[in-house]
Each structure stands twice: as structure tokens, then as C-alpha cells.
Write a structure and sequence with these properties.
By secondary structure, the chain is mainly alpha-helical. The protein has helices spanning 16-22, 25-28, 32-48, 54-73, 85-97, 110-146, 166-191, 210-216, 226-231, 234-260, 288-311, 325-349, 354-362, 368-379, 383-400, 409-415, 423-426, 429-435, 444-458, and strands spanning 151-156, 159-165, 193-194, 221-222, 268-269, 351-352. The strands form 3 sheets. Strands 1-2 form a two-stranded antiparallel ribbon. A two-stranded parallel sheet has the order 3-4. The radius of gyration is 31 Å and the shape is elongated. The termini are far apart. Bound molecules: arginine (ARG). Its EC number is 4.3.2.1. This is Argininosuccinate lyase. Residues 8-302 form the Fumarate lyase N-terminal domain.
Length: 459
């Protein structure tokens, strides 16, 4: 038998394989609430514009509420033969209220319907992402405040570069996640127009009120071009792009936590709540959450690339290819939200090992730049010469197997005779970080300024 929704011109129903490749109900049932919200807004508008009678609209409204509670209660029977969430809902509505159900689709198409549902779903995810990022930023601020003046090595090339403060390192991530937050807000503002009423592609001859449905669904305005409204998915791609960038930040931090929690580094201890053990090695405490964050990022990039590929060759307007937008976005959204929550939990719970950080900060000739700067500042040496003298001293310390502050004044003067004893003041790690007072620098005073600034931004 042919399809009751569109089978008028069909003599036979679809092949089982056709049904299998065509159906999206297995995944788009996640948009049930959005679909019903869209239908309710549409029906109310059809009543207000006298396209439908108040009696029909009331029957539709009540029927849709029943369908929603059936779905939420878990006793709704989804049917693959009915393809997608839109037709599953409408078909059940017909069983409940009869004939008026058939009037709901007046002045509407599944093309504007699915674009509307999906936008509503993605918009909720932008909101969830905003909340997740804010929570993570607050957790980082907590770490930064606790250790604003704790010293640790700063790295370039993963080689010790200069001492920095723990708070400064935490605040670097606050900046990154803060930009992610602003990207989320920008993208949400840009996507907030309503496709509903674009109908199949050309608009409709019914006197609908798209401003009314847009407002009812919390959109800022109706989408201005009906062809565009049903055929673009850039809102989903922007979600995936923003998610990809943010996931990249999460992954870099996750990578650092994996390194930092190792026995070789001991910079942090992750909490039991966010670690796992080994079934064979009793001593193990593994940073699995960090590793999984690092790995889940791949799924998000995959979704971004995947949907770009789906969209890039499609002529306007709707093509069924676009049904492949949802699973990508659903999976990426789930991965991103979970990664953010796991990172927040780890950051909140982790304990920085202040002693290990301080020992590491002082090793690897981390204050060599301070020594070179001293030669410039005090002896008036050109920086290039100072760099060379310092390099010679580093080489000397390396061959003696000690750090720079362990060299004697005689050692120093054997390389450059005008060096005086107060050079040792700048070789201390705490002095080094305290001296980096330029705006945005690692000095604890600057870090506290950064924390203060962010608290004001978030207040
Ligand atoms: N399940 C479809 C999708 O997700 C709904 C839109 C179908 N539109 C159509 N003209 N076949 O894209």
C-alpha cells in the first residue's frame, strides 16, 4: 500500500531497502519536542489568521499536547514506515483527533518544518554550550585564584622556557574558553531567524503570519528568503565549527593534564572521582577522562567535515542529502557537552602540586633570560651579546651538572668580568615571575588583575 502522507500518485509502497535508506525516525525523534513546539506555533497562527477555525486549532493544540506527553512518557510507538518525526507526530495526531489533523500542514512543508525543528534543537545546544563554558571558566578561575603566585615552568617546544605562575596558565585557558563563549553567543544571535512559513521553498499563497510564528518560537525574525530558509544548514555548520574550535582547546588542556599527572611531571593530582584504575597494575591511577576528551574531539571534527561535505555540492533548495545533517550534529553536541562537563569536573577536583611545580620551575635554566636581561639593564650590554654570554654560562652550568644559581661569582666572572654578586637576585624563580609586570604578563599582580577583570565580565 502506498504512503498515506504522500502516496496519492503511487500505486505501490516502497521497497524495504528504500524504507531503510529513507527513514530518519531512528535519530530525528530527538527533535520531537521541537517538532511539536513548531506545530503548535503554526496551528495557533493558522487560527489567528482565520485560515483554520478555532475549533480545529483547539483540537490540534490538545492533540499535540497528548502526543508530546506520550513521547515524553516513553509509550509512543515510532514507525519507520512513517519516515521521520514530522510524519510520526502528524499520523498519531490523526489517530487522536481525526480530520483536523490533516489541516495542520496547511501553508507548511516538511522542508520548512525540519529546518525549524533543527534550528530550535541547535539553539538549545548553543545555550547548553554557553552554560558548560561558563561553568568551566568558573572552575578555572578557582584554580587561578588559589595559585596566582605559584611558580611553574613555562614551556615552548615542551622545553623549559621561562618560569610562569600557575594562575597565569589557568587564566590562559580562561581567555580561550572565553572566546569560545563569545563565538557561541555570536553564532546563536546570527542563527536566530525562523524558517517556518517558507513552506516547500517558495513561500505560500495562504495569508500566514510568519512574524507571529517566529515570535512564538523565540526567533528574532522570520528568515528573509524562503529559498535560503529551507536550503541552508550554515547554522549547524557554525555550531560544529564553534564546537570544533572549543574542542581543540579542551583537547590541548586534556593533553596537558595527561602529561602533568604522570609520575615524571607530578604537576597535578587528579581526583579519584575523575580517574580510573588498572585491573592488573595496582599502583595505577589513569587520567582516562582527559584522554577521552582528547579523543572525542575527533568525532566533532569528523562531524564538521562530514556536514561540510554533505552540503558543498547541493543545488538550491532542499535535497534529501540534508537529512544527513542531524546525526553529525547530535553526536558532536553530545561529545562536546560531555567533554566540557568532564573537564569542569577534573579542573574543580584537581590538586596542583605546588612543590613539584616550584622544583620544575627552577630547573632547565629557566631564568637564563632574566640573566641576559640583567646584563643588558645593569651592564648596558647589547642584547645579542648578553644572549651569547648567558649561553656560555648555561653551557658551563650544564657541564658542571648544576643550575645557573649554583654557579659561583668566580665562574660568572670567568665568562664576563663585570658581572657582580647582585646578578643572583634575578636568578631566583620567584623574582623572575614577580618581575614580569607588563600588561598580561605572568607576575602574580598581573594575574590577579586578569582574574578581577574576568569576574567583572562574568558578573
Ligand atoms: N526527514 C527529512 C529531513 O530530515 C524531513 C524533510 C523531508 N522533506 C522532503 N521534501 N522529503 O530532512
Amino acid at each position: 500500500t502506498s504512503n498515506t502522507m504522500w502516496g496519492g500518485r503511487f500505486a505501490a509502497g516502497p521497497d524495504a531497502i528504500m524504507e531503510a535508506i529513507n527513514a530518519s525516525i531512528g535519530f530525528d525523534q530527538r527533535m520531537a519536542a521541537q517538532d511539536i513546539a513548531g506545530s503548535r506555533a503554526h496551528a495557533a497562527m493558522l487560527g489567528a489568521t482565520n485560515i483554520l477555525t478555532d475549533t480545529d486549532v483547539e483540537a490540534i493544540r490538545e492533540g499535540l499536547l497528548t502526543v508530546l506527553s506520550e513521547i515524553e512518557g516513553g509509550d509512543f510507538k515510532f514507525s519507520t514506515a512513517l519516515e521521520d518525526i514530522h510524519m510520526n507526530v502528524e499520523s498519531r495526531l490523526k489517530e487522536i483527533i481525526g480530520e483536523p489533523a490533516g489541516r495542520l500542514h496547511t501553508g507548511r512543508s516538511r522542508n520548512d518544518q525540519v529546518a525549524t525543528d533543527f534550528k530550535l534543537w541547535v539553539r538549545d545546544q548553543f545555550d547548553a554550550a554557553e552554560a558548560g563554558l561558563l561553568a568551566l571558566i568558573h572552575a578555572l578561575l578557582g584554580q587561578a585564584e588559589a595559585g596566582a603566585d605559584w611558580v611553574m615552568p613555562g614551556f615552548t617546544h615542551l622545553q623549559v622556557a621561562q618560569p610562569v605562575t600557575w594562575g597565569h596558565h589557568m587564566m590562559a585557558y580562561v581567555e580561550m574558553f572565553g572566546r569560545d563563549l563569545s563565538r557561541v553567543r555570536d553564532a546563536r544571535a546570527r542563527m536566530n531567524t525562523s524558517p517556518l512559513g517558507a513552506a516547500a521553498l517558495a513561500g505560500t499563497s495562504f495569508p500566514i503570519d510568519r512574524h507571529m510564528t517566529a515570535k512564538a518560537l523565540g526567533f528574532d525574525a522570520p528568515a528573509a528568503n524562503s529559498l535560503d530558509a529551507v536550503s541552508d544548514r550554515d547554522f549547524a555548520l557554525e555550531f560544529l565549527s564553534v564546537a570544533s574550535i572549543s574542542a581543540m582547546h579542551l583537547s590541548r588542556f586534556a593533553e596537558e593534564l595527561v602529561i602533568w599527572s604522570s609520575a615524571q611531571f607530578r604537576f597535578v593530582a587528579l581526583s579519584d572521582r575523575f580517574s580510573t584504575g588498572s585491573s592488573i597494575m595496582p599502583q595505577k591511577k589513569n587520567p582516562d577522562a582527559a584522554e577521552l576528551i582528547r579523543a572525542k574531539v575527533g568525532r566533532i571534527y569528523g562531524a564538521n567535515t562530514g556536514l561540510m561535505m554533505v552540503m558543498k555540492g547541493l543545488p538550491l533548495t532542499y535535497s534529501k542529502d540534508m537529512q544527513e545533517d542531524k546525526e553529525q550534529v547530535f553526536d558532536a553536541a553530545d561529545s562536546w557537552m560531555l567533554a566540557m562537563a568532564a573537564m569542569e569536573g577534573m579542573v574543580k577536583d584537581m590538586t596542583a602540586n605546588r612543590e613539584s611545580l616550584a622544583v620544575a620551575a627552577a630547573s632547565g635554566f629557566s631564568t637564563a633570560t632574566d640573566l641576559a636581561d640583567w646584563l643588558v639593564r645593569v651592564l648596558g650590554m647589547p642584547f645579542r651579546d648578553a644572549h651569547h654570554v648567558t649561553g656560555t654560562l648555561v653551557g658551563m652550568a650544564e657541564s658542571k651538572g648544576c643550575d645557573l644559581p649554583d654557579l659561583s661569582l668566580d665562574d660568572m666572572q670567568s665568562v664576563h668580568q663585570h658581572i657582580t654578586a647582585d646578578v643572583f637576585d634575578v636568578l631566583g624563580v620567584q623574582n623572575s615571575v614577580n618581575s614580569r609586570i607588563s600588561y598580561g604578563g605572568t607576575a602574580p599582580a598581573q594575574v590577579r588583575e586578569q582574574i578581577k577583570r574576568w569576574k567583572e565580565i562574568l558578573a
